[in-house]
Design goal:
The chain has 131 residues and is an alpha+beta fold. The chain folds into two domains: 35 residues, no CATH class; 72 residues, no CATH class. 27% of the residues lie in helices and 24% in strands. The strands form three sheets. A three-stranded mixed sheet has the order 3-7-6, with no helix packed on it. A two-stranded antiparallel ribbon has the order 1-2. Strand 6 and strand 7 form a beta hairpin. It is flat and about 70 Å long. It starts with a strand and ends with a helix.
Length: 131
């Protein structure tokens, strides 16, 4: 079954009603919906992959207890750009001993600092409701 096609001319500029130079032709199906045109030769610009706006180090250590520390195993692994397969940096590989250090440091920080902050915040909220 063939559908009838109708042609409509549309001005290219909303502000200029006499835009004869900028008219575009749009094909509509008989139901009023524009017909899509595929494979019209659209070309896309390459994705910007510039690293000029950031500074990357060649190697990153573990961040434990507020400091960057070397992994106890001394091992690092490479991370790569998936688009170019270019090496970005080396990242420290944590083992069980490093995880234990990080958990102990986090627990200590919670007990010494963050737990008190939570109590203070709760007191501030409850006093705000009392007023």
């Amino acid at each position: 079954m063939q559908r009838k096609m109708s042609r409509v001319k549309v001005a290219g500029s909303i502000n200029d009603c006499n835009a004869n130079k900028n008219e575009k032709e749009i094909n509509f199906k008989s139901n009023g919906v524009p017909k899509l045109k595929f494979n019209t030769g659209w070309e896309y610009a390459p994705a910007p992959e510039s690293k000029s706006h950031i500074k990357l180090k060649d190697r990153y250590d573990l961040f434990i207890n507020g400091k960057f520390v070397k992994p106890s195993s001394g091992k690092y692994f490479e991370t790569i750009n998936p688009a170019t397969e270019e090496k970005i940096a080396e990242i420290a590989e944590a083992n069980a001993a490093d995880v234990d250090k990080a958990v102990k440091a986090a627990r200590n920080a919670y007990e010494r600092v963050w737990k008190k902050c939570r109590r203070q915040k709760e007191q501030n909220i409850s006093s705000a409701f009392q007023e």
